[in-house]
Specification:
It is built from six helices and seven strands. The protein is of the alpha/beta class and about 190 residues long.
C-alpha cells in the first residue's frame, strides 16, 4: 500500500449503503490537514441511502450503482475508480459482497469496518447474535477486504463491555462510537 507523502493525500472512495455515520466521520477526518486521505468519490448501492446527504454537503462526487447485476455494477465502479484515479477504498456499511475479480484489482487497498470482534460474528445481525449468546464483550474491527467474507487481516479492534440491560440497538450505539474512533486510526496506521 502506497503511503501518503508530505501533503499529498491518497485519493479515496467510500462505499456506503445506509445512514453513513462512518462516512460522515471519515469526511471530517479527511478534512484534517494531516489526514492521509482525500475523499474523491462516494459510491452507494442504494439511491435512498441517507449517507448520500454528506456527499452533497461536502461537494463530493456521488454515484448510485444498481447491483441487480453485480458484474455490470462492478464494471461501472471500476471504470469510475480508474477515471478518478482512486487508490484506496473504505467500505462503510456497504451491504454488497464484492467479487474476487474486483478485490484482486484493488488487492490490499480495500478496508472494511465490521461491528464485531472478528473472527467472531462474521456477516449480518452481529448485535442480535452477541446479545443472544450472552457475551460479556463485543466491539468492532477494521480489516482488509479479501474474497472470503470478513476474513481479511485485522488492522485494528476496539472492545466494549456489554451490560445486562443492553439491547441490539443500545449495543449498536456503543459500538458505533468506537467505530468512529478506530476507523480513522486504522487508516493512519496503514497510510502514514
Amino acid at each position: 500500500m502506497k503511503k501518503s507523502t508530505g501533503n499529498k493525500k491518497i485519493k479515496t472512495a467510500i462505499f456506503i449503503s445506509g445512514k453513513g455515520s462512518n462516512l460522515k466521520n471519515l469526511i471530517k477526518f479527511s478534512n484534517q490537514i494531516n489526514s492521509p486521505i482525500s475523499i474523491k468519490l462516494i459510491v452507494s448501492n442504494k439511491k435512498n441511502a441517507k449517507g448520500l446527504i454528506y456527499a452533497n454537503q461536502n461537494n463530493i462526487i456521488k454515484k448510485i450503482i444498481n447491483f441487480s447485476n453485480p458484474r455490470i455494477a462492478e464494471k461501472k465502479i471500476l471504470s469510475l475508480l480508474i477515471k478518478k484515479k482512486i487508490e484506496f477504498i473504505c467500505l462503510a456499511g456497504f451491504m454488497e459482497i464484492l467479487s474476487v475479480y474486483f478485490i484482486k484489482k484493488f488487492k490490499g487497498k480495500i478496508i472494511n469496518m465490521h461491528p464485531s470482534l472478528l473472527p467472531k460474528y462474521k456477516g449480518l445481525n452481529t448485535h442480535e447474535r452477541v446479545i443472544k449468546n450472552n457475551d460479556k464483550i463485543s466491539g468492532c474491527t477494521v480489516h482488509y477486504v479479501t474474497p472470503k467474507l470478513d476474513s481479511g487481516k485485522i488492522i485494528m479492534q476496539k472492545t466494549v463491555k456489554i451490560s445486562k440491560i443492553d439491547t441490539p440497538k443500545s449495543l449498536e450505539k456503543k459500538i458505533l462510537k468506537k467505530e468512529h474512533i478506530i476507523y480513522p486510526a486504522a487508516i493512519r496506521k496503514i497510510l502514514n
